[in-house]
Amino acid sequence: MKGIVFTEFLDLVEEKFGLEMVDKIISESELDSGGIYTSVGTYKFSEMLQLLQHLSEHTDISIDDLLLVYAEHFFSVIEKSYPGLLATYQDPIEMLSSIENHIHIEVRKIYPDAELPSFEVMEKTKNSLTLIYKSSRAMHHFGLGLMNKTFEHFNTKATILLDKIKTDGTEVKFTIHKTP
Ligand code: HEM
Question: Which segments cross the bilayer (predicted)?
Fold first, then answer.
């Protein structure tokens, strides 16, 4: 997992819960990195999982909810860091149907060792989209948060349903309807 995912996560934890919480979850986790991350480095996903687990224990917020809120923050990082990529799109359905064949392809050019999910388009109309998310990392709520912000970015609204195809969350169906 790319360092930017860790640095932005720890920044948000500090902002919401304070530096003591950052120190606490780092010292409770077994981290090869020692909890020192640079945005261009690459670290084990298991480090993120441990940090999330400990934060969840201390805050009583589920890992899914933590990932949802974190993704909403991460979208603003994307807006700041990759404005050109977002400017390619005028419509949220177009953007979300292009994660697999454009957006994450560009991401891989920037970070060749990025660990990215797949988002297969099952059905697409002007105002609706069905996507199948697949990833061993089961970060579907991170995806949900980015989708929420994608609609906000285009001043639109949508209902987004999430159905787990596999109970461990490694395969999830998203059914998206843009609100007219
Ligand atoms: C992961 C970039 C749009 C879903 C990531 C990662 C980066 C990234 C850097 C981390 C990879 C790693 O740590 O190895 C971007 C950029 C985007 C974008 C620059 C837009 C310009 C989206 C959108 C979605 C999405 C719109 C929507 C649903 C995900 C998910 C992951 C991820 C779920 C977590 C990894 C996993 O589930 O396996 N993305 N992304 N991304 N991205 Fe994107």
Answer: none
138, 51: one domain: no
Ligand 1 pocket, mutate which of 52, 103, 135 (most atoms under 8 A from CB): 103
- Does residue 143's CB lie within 6 angstroms of at least one atom of ligand 1? yes
Q: How far apart are the CA of 154 and the centre of ligand 1, in A?
A: 18
Range of the domain at 41: 3-61
DSSP, collapsed to helix, strand or coil, labels residue 160 as strand
Taking only the tens place, the pLDDT of each residue in 53-105 is 999 999 999 999 999 999 999 999 999 999 999 999 999 999 999 999 999 99
Give the distance (Å) from ligand 1 centre to CA of residue 45: 14
- Tell me the C-alpha distance between 8 and 11, whole Å: 5
Same domain, 38 and 80: no
Cα–Cα–Cα angle for 17, 23, 28, nearest 5°?
A: 110
Number of domains in the chain: 2
